Amino acid sequence: MTNQSVIFFDIDGTLLTHEKKLPPSTKEAIFKLKENGHMVAIATGRAPFMFEELREELDIRTFVSYNGQFVVLNGKVLHTNSLNVSMLEKLTETALQNNHPVVFMDHEDMKANVPEHDYIKESIATLKISRFPAHDPHYYKGRELYQSLLFCPNGEEQQYERDFHDFDFVRWHPVSVDVLPKGGSKARGIEKIVKNLGFPDERIYAFGDGLNDIEMLSTVKNSVAMGNAEDKVKEVAKYVTKSVEDNGIIHGLEMVGLL
């Protein structure tokens, strides 16, 4: 198909509502895109094991996970980018002194460095996933970790940003931030996929709503911010659609001429 496009969708607040529901109109739109010969992919901060059911429901085999650190193309791992383990160990030591728990994450599981903590419960609960991080303070040893979660109130991540230059810190919850390899992003992950497939810039689309979507939406030529996105996210997007709860995906796809 000469006019085939690839469309990347964020999950939380984009494909899924804030109640973590998939709107029927969104599911219909995804399958209509594929019927029309387009390629549909996911670009999320979530771990691969956090959206297996969604991938199965939408029959999606290409995705950017961990904000670009674990990239899969047509069911096969295309690119990985892991955290500096020695620096992560130092960060964890500092976090323990500050009573800031840490969760270690690879492509298969996640483990917390403390037995339990209210911040972990509060933030992970909002994802509405069946898996909860068990306690294993040594999970980072001998593994490739693609992301960690640092749990601290808004603003307190600044001390880590100052002291740990190997990492980027992206807040996703009032008490939690993603810890990523420096320079890693959804945009970098998307670049790996489109370079492999040879899509021209004008045939690449991306939908998102969160702070971790800013680089993606400012890099992809045809970018669409959800109506429920923060203003700073909307400012970098080429288009702004309706909110996810108001059939924003199908409206946005119609707006850009894909449906």
Please supply descriptive tags for the structure shown above:
single chain, 259 residues, alpha/beta, Rossmann fold, Hypothetical Protein, Haloacid Dehalogenase-like Hydrolase, Chain: A, domain 2, eight-stranded mixed beta sheet, six-stranded mixed beta sheet, globular
CATH homologous superfamily caption of the largest domain: HAD superfamily/HAD-like
Highest-level CATH class of the largest domain: Alpha Beta
Global shape:
globular
SSE order: EHEHEEEHEEHEEHEEHEHEHEH
How helical, in percent, are the residues?
25-40%
CATH architectural grouping of the largest domain: 3-Layer(aba) Sandwich
Rg for CA atoms: 18 Å
Coarse structural class: alpha/beta
The number of helical segments is 9
Main sheet strand line-up? 5-4-3-2-1-12-13-14
Which percent band covers the strand fraction?
Answer: 15-25%
Number of DSSP-assigned strands = 14
Distance between the termini: 15 Å
Low-pLDDT sequence parts: none
